[in-house]
Write a structure and sequence with these properties.
heterotrimer, A: about 325 residues, Rossmann fold, seven-stranded parallel β-sheet, C: about 550 residues, alpha/beta, five-stranded parallel β-sheet, 23 helices
């Protein structure tokens, strides 16, 4: 085993931090390390938290950390913030709300930017989860803004997926309905002291009931909880629901080993292959300058995008499949 | 994926002073320059900043202080990084820093000090020239 | 009531205005205007010229009137500076209580009429000098006060029955005030006699200055306790100084400073009324604190608009009947953020212009920044020049000879109107959110200020706005300025002193006192008497504040950028 893997398994913070950086930056050397770490993973319980900006996800995660630490559980956090589409940079501010845990050796917090890569976020987050898992964290919390498909996919791969809303979001509830309702194992109405909390609750109840009918036979009915994370109100109850969900999964998934769930493995492997193909082929193509040239030609009206695509992809495929 | 190294920076407010105007502006400027910026939030001890910087694997820490405590807080940050074997993380400082303090701070391992009036462009340029994502 | 202008002449003015503009356009076609867009430091666009039409809707009696008359646009007192000049109140505080005491004696001797105390960061945050969080900060930007002993040393030999004292302190304001009251009582001075101000404005801390301890709601409760106690017990004390200064320093525009400050004032007034107090019993003791920034006319208009807005709000919204409740009395400090480290002697000029704007705006008291404030705590020499600046304005320039000399200026009246209108719009938005506490929870003011600050910085970087010596007229040669150094030994000495007090006091009494503070905090009782008792037993600042933190919880930075 490489020394990097050994250090990760021993829980060395610096090594873990750097490995996650390499994963995020798409360094090819990480593959070997991840292969080595794989047998040491599969032990952590992964919780995905998603919701619109401003619903108080980070504050909730901060309180969750406190509760889990009181139970002597170690915690890893991956907080994903959007990358600016204009500059490619990002301000990663979720950590601020959890920073009081920074001196706690049982807690590892890492901010990640969505960056712009094609579906790569899901993969790099999954790999980062594996790293935190291998370093021995009992719980891993992944926090993302529930907007793009990528971010939804990220939390979908968690054991328990939590959707956080606040009262009075109106149209946003509709948006949830359209997109990510079906992935929620638990719904949490944060800032529940605000006007409209009961209305939000009944709206959500209606929607989950309808959704439930589609999944006849499922024994898990997503609970809808209220909380005021900033005052630590309702957070303990929320964690109890997560525990209930964990027990439910234990019953149906043979000890939470998602990796033995054929459907999940299929999905994850497909993602990984897709990503690898992009890495190997597409990135190579954009690097050669062919891509830029084609873009210019389309803009100048000399070429249609369909032909441009054929011109680039077909020869590349021919080379790669040889 | 091909090498997509980005500069990661921690913008940090050590000490008790809450004047974060400069820190917030610089965080935005870094973002607009394409860096990934982790903001520590206010009222941080050097210990908390260093621990967070290591977990976040940043290439540089930018410290902002406007309350005269830089002579303790800045060198203490560098010292802690050294203790943790993380002194490859570059430390810079900004804020109200008297001229005569600057050489002393540099001697203690603070790579650069940006005083009021330095333009954002110049700060960003300095970071691009001096901080290489590893 | 009569409009300030005869509207019949408006057509005539319009005709001439059009002609004049045409002539100008011709001139500018060959040689364009100096700038593409003329704007204030807050990025408010300014027209080529202002005429009676711009102030056309003004009604003299309704909107301007006479000083001392509602709505007080021209000043709160009828006599203004013809009667008494503004109070020249210079903020001072450095190192130990004994050092600051010396500076206070010096200032009183130099003719200063009110004292103003700056505390160090640990004191401002409610930590003692021996706290691990205080490392490196003891005595650095003000005086360290850990317990009553320090307060006694700070005011030793000063005539606190004759001079007023202003204390710039927020989260632990109630505790420092209790120490001041205890110190006075121990000297045999009656509660009725002492006078002064505690800043005690937590809302602007959440919005701008970020010196916070407990969450917003309990913070406002503590403030309501101090307001109530002051109303009933310490009649000469201003229990709150509603501050726009820091909002501006954090990078807001002039209108944001105006609107957020007044909205804070509305929130405090409402909190005191909710406490069961009669508005006319406490409102006359409210005071305000504004920034005076670089844009001369915009600042004068801001002060005038502030007075008129507050009068209207107090009379119409809160139904106050006592005219003194309608008064917006304010302290001003020149803009620290406008000073430059480059060519620091230029700061004397900046400060003079800002001070002039504050005087033209009718301030009640004024602090002028020292030229070296951007570098460190002012030296005595620099502080003296700053004080002399005020004295020159007051006694040489002649601007204090008449009241509201800019009243009636087409430009200034038009600006005053515009700013009032815009600020009321912002206040409406805040009301719609459910008031300032709700707006803060939503990070509304924080985000607005962050955006304004960033835009301003970009304008400076792009040289759209000039900062002399920084992005224009830059010189390589720097004139050295003498800077005051705070002795690094101070921290050690202060910790020793605090430890000594802790060993000499009766710890049972301290425990008892702190327990009573805890009970008062947890219940509905006013906390002030329990605080005075606790600090008299030499309970330290941090010991009391830890009780606050235990009972009310701690507020953490929501991190808006």
């Amino acid at each position: 085993m490489s020394s990097v893997s050994e250090k990760v398994i021993a829980g060395d913070v610096r090594t873990v931090a750097r490995l996650i950086r390499d994963i995020d930056d798409g360094m090819p050397n990480v593959r070997e390390v991840l292969k080595e770490l794989y047998p040491a993973t599969g032990n952590a319980y992964v919780i995905g938290i998603t919701g619109a900006p401003g619903v108080g996800k980070s504050t909730l995660v901060d309180q969750m950390i406190s509760h889990l630490r009181e139970d002597n559980k170690t915690v890893g956090v991956l907080a994903v913030d959007p990358t600016s589409p204009f500059s490619g940079g990002a301000i990663l501010g979720d950590r601020i709300r959890m920073q009081r845990h920074s001196m706690d050796e049982g807690v590892f917090i890492r901010s990640m930017a969505t960056r712009g890569h094609f579906g790569g976020l899901t993969l790099s987050t999954r790999s980062a989860i594996d790293v935190l898992d291998a370093m021995g964290k009992d719980y891993i919390i992944v926090e993302t803004v529930g907007v793009g498909q990528d971010e939804v996919d990220v939390v979908k791969s968690a054991h328990t997926t939590v959707i956080v809303v606040i009262p009075g979001m109106g149209d946003d509830i509709q948006a949830i309905k359209a997109g990510i309702l079906e992935i929620g194992d638990i719904f949490l109405i944060n800032k529940a002291d605000r006007e409209g909390a009961d209305k939000t609750l009944s709206d959500l109840r209606l929607m989950t009931d309808m959704d439930q009918k589609k999944h006849e036979g499922d024994k898990w009915t997503p609970p809808i909880l209220k909380a005021q994370a900033v005052f630590d109100t309702g957070v303990a109850e929320f964690l109890e629901e997560i525990e209930k969900h964990r027990k439910y999964l234990l019953d149906i998934t043979e000890g939470l080993q998602f990796r033995k769930d054929k459907h999940r493995v299929q999905e994850e492997l497909r993602d990984m292959m897709k990503n690898r193909l992009i890495e190997e082929v597409l990135d190579g193509l954009t690097e050669t300058g062919e891509f830029e040239k084609a873009v210019d030609s389309i803009v100048e009206g000399k070429l249609d995008p369909y032909t441009a695509c054929d011109n680039i992809v077909l020869p590349a495929l021919a080379t790669n499949t040889r | 994926m091909v090498n997509k190294r980005r500069i990661r920076v921690m913008v940090a407010k050590p000490g008790l002073d809450g004047h974060d105007r400069g820190a917030r502006i610089i965080a935005r400027a870094y973002r607009d320059a394409g860096f990934e910026v982790v903001y520590s939030g206010l009222h941080q001890t050097p210990e908390e900043i260093v621990e967070a910087s290591i977990q976040e694997d940043v290439d540089m820490i930018g410290l902002s202080s406007l309350a005269g405590a830089h002579n303790y807080l800045f060198p203490r940050t560098v010292e802690l990084l050294r203790e943790k074997g993380a002194d490859d993380i570059i430390v810079c400082g900004g804020g109200i820093i008297p001229d005569e303090d600057i050489p002393v701070l540099k001697e203690k391992g603070i790579k650069e000090i940006f005083t009021p009036g330095t333009t954002l462009d110049n700060i960003v340029k300095w970071v691009k020239e001096n901080v290489k994502p590893r | 009531m009569a409009s300030i202008f005869d509207k019949k002449i408006f057509d005539e003015i319009e005709e001439s205005h059009v002609k004049w503009n045409k002539k100008l356009e011709k001139d500018f076609s060959s040689r364009p205007e100096r700038l593409e867009r003329f704007s204030t430091v807050s990025d408010r666009e300014i027209k080529r010229i202002y005429t009676p039409k711009d102030a056309g809707d003004l009604d003299f009696m309704r909107d301007i009137g006479f000083p001392g008359d509602y709505p007080f646009t021209r000043g709160v007192q009828p006599s203004m500076y013809r009667g008494r000049l503004w109070t020249m109140r210079m903020f001072a505080g450095l190192g130990s209580a004994t050092d600051t005491n010396k500076r206070f004696h010096h200032l009183v001797k130099e003719g200063q009429t009110g004292l103003s105390t700056a505390f160090d960061m640990p004191t401002l945050m409610g930590y003692d000098s021996d706290s691990p969080k205080a490392r490196g900060e003891c005595g650095k930007c003000g005086v360290a006060i850990d317990n009553l002993k320090d307060m006694e040393d700070l005011f030793d030999g000063l005539p606190i029955d004759r001079i007023t004292t202003s204390m710039t302190i927020n989260p632990p304001a109630s505790v420092l005030w209790a120490m001041y009251i205890a110190m006075a009582e121990n000297r045999g001075i009656d509660r009725n006699v002492i006078g002064g101000t505690i800043q005690n404005d937590m809302l602007k801390e959440f919005i701008a200055q970020k010196t916070f301890m407990c969450p917003p709601k309990p913070s406002v409760r503590i403030i309501a306790d101090t307001v109530e106690f002051g109303t009933n017990e310490i009649p000469r004390w201003n229990t709150i100084s509603i501050s726009g200064y820091h909002i501006r320093e954090a990078g807001s525009t002039a209108v944001q400073e105006l609107a957020f400050t007044i909205a804070d004032g509305i929130a405090y007034t409402q909190a005191a009324i909710d406490r069961g107090l009669n508005v006319d019993d406490f409102a006359p003791r409210f005071s305000f604190f504004f920034n005076s920034h670089l844009d001369f006319f915009e600042e004068v208009a801001k002060f005038r608009a502030a007075r008129r807005m507050w009068a209207r709000i107090m009379k119409e919204r809160f139904k106050a009947k006592d005219p003194r409740s309608w008064w917006l009395r304010f302290h001003t400090q020149t803009a620290g953020c406008s000073l430059t480290a480059q060519q620091p002697y230029n700061n004397v000029v900046r400060t003079a212009l800002q001070a002039l704007a504050a005087v033209m705006g009718g301030t009640q008291s004024l602090h002028t920044n020292s030229l070296d404030e951007v570098l460190a705590i002012p030296t005595e020499e620099a502080a003296t020049i700053a004080l002399r600046t005020q004295q020159i304005i007051a006694e040489e320039s002649g601007v204090a000879n008449t009241i509201d000399p800019l009243g009636g200026s087409y430009f200034v009246e038009s600006l005053t109107n515009q700013m009032e209108e815009e600020a009321f719009e912002i206040i409406k938005r805040i009301d719609d959110m459910g008031g300032m506490l709700a707006a803060i929870e939503r990070n509304y003011p924080q985000q607005e200020i962050a955006d304004a600050a960033y835009n301003y910085q970009i304008q400076i970087d792009k040289k759209i706005k000039t900062v002399v010596g920084v992005n224009k007229y830059v010189t390589d040669e720097e004139i050295p300025v003498e800077v005051l150094e705070i002795d690094e030994e101070l921290e050690k000495l202060q910790i020793e002193k605090t430890n000594r007090v802790k060993t000499e006091r009766d710890n049972n009494k301290v425990k008892e006192g702190l327990a009573e503070v805890g009970e008062a905090c947890a219940g509905n009782e006013n906390i002030m008497e329990s605080l005075i008792k606790a600090v008299k037993s030499y309970a330290t600042l941090q010991e009391v504040c830890d009780v606050y933190r235990d009972v009310f919880g701690e507020y953490r930075d929501p991190g808006i950028y």
